Amino acid sequence: MATFAVVLPAFLIVLAVTAILSRIIENRYVQAALDGIKACIIGIIFSTGVLMIWKNLFGSVSNGVDYRAILITLILGVIYFGSRRVKEKGISPITLIVLAAVCGVIGYEV
């Protein structure tokens, strides 16, 4: 019975927010704001990815260049952009993540 009392308020809040959002989501001002937010999120994700690639490939000055990481990045880039030439939609992100994991395990096995 105690679990029901804890879950019910959260469930009711989710239902209320969903009901409100379903009404205002088609408003042109809300759509314009969401389009702006989407562009910002894409930029943030892209810059984070570039920063992660840069740090993993070149690391700090004391560590030097990680040639295995450069090779794995090039292999994944060829697979990604090559698949877009072969298939219209290209390779799925999940498949690319699995391939990256396999390349990492093969490239960095101890």
What can you see in these coordinates?
With 110 residues, this protein is an all-alpha fold. It has two domains: 1-64; 66-110, no CATH class. It is built from four helices and no strands. It starts with a helix and ends with a helix. The model has no long low-confidence stretch (mean pLDDT 84).
Q: Characteristics of this structure?
A:
81% helix, mainly alpha, elongated, 4 helices
| Structural class based on helices, strands and sheet pairing | mainly alpha
Strand content: under 5%
The radius of gyration over CA amounts to 22 Å
Number-wise, the strands total 0
Mean pLDDT: 84
The share of residues in helices is over 70%
Q: N-to-C SSE series?
A: HHHH
Terminal Cα span: 52 Å
Enumerate how many helices there are, as a single number.
4
> What characteristic shape results from the CA principal axes?
elongated
Point out poorly predicted stretches. Answer: none
Major beta sheet summary:
none
When the domains are counted, the total is 2
What secondary-structure arrangement, pairings included, does this model have?
Elements: H1 2-24, H2 28-58, H3 67-86, H4 93-107
